[in-house]
Amino acid sequence: MHVSLILLLTVLVWTFPAESVLWRGEDKQLVYFWFQQRGRVLTNEYAVKWFLFWDALTRNRTDGALVRLTTAVQPWEDWQDGDRRLREFAALAVPELGRFIPD
Fold first, then answer.
1. For the purposes of burial, counting CB atoms within 10 Å of the CB of 91, is it exposed (0-12), middle (13-18) or buried (19 or more)?
2. How many domains does the chain have?
3. Contact 72, 31 (CB under 8 A)
C-alpha cells in the first residue's frame, strides 16, 4: 500500500475529537475521545484496527493510546460550559501528550 493511500484513509476517518454525552439521572458528563497511535489521531474504531494491523505488518509496532477527556456538567450549567471547559483543558494537555505517547 502506498503512503498516499494511507494518508487518504487517515483523512477520511479523522474527525477530531469524537464527542459523547453520558447521562444518568441528574448526572451528566461530556466526553471527548480519540485514539493516538504511531503518529496518527483517529476516532473511527475500524480505522484504528486497520492501522494496528497495517503497522504490525510494516513497522512491527502495535503501540498507541486511547485519550479520553471527561467533564461533569452540573445541573445549572449548559452543555456549552462543559464544551468550553474541555477545550480549554485540551489546549493545555494535548501538547504534553507527545512526552507519553510515542510516534
1. exposed
2. 1
3. no
pTM (two decimals) = 0.74
Q: SS3 of 52, please?
A: helix
Q: Answer whether residue 2 shows pLDDT above 60.
A: no
Tell me which residue has cell 489546549: 91
- Pairing between strand 40-42 and 65-73? unpaired
| Residue 53 lies in domain | 3-99
CB of 63 within 8 A of CB of 38?
A: yes
Beta bridge partners, 28, equal 23, 73
Whether residue 63 contacts residue 37, with contact meaning beta carbons closer than 8 Å, is answered with yes
Hey, how many other C-beta atoms are within 10 angstroms of the C-beta on 86?
19
Cell reading at 58: 510494516
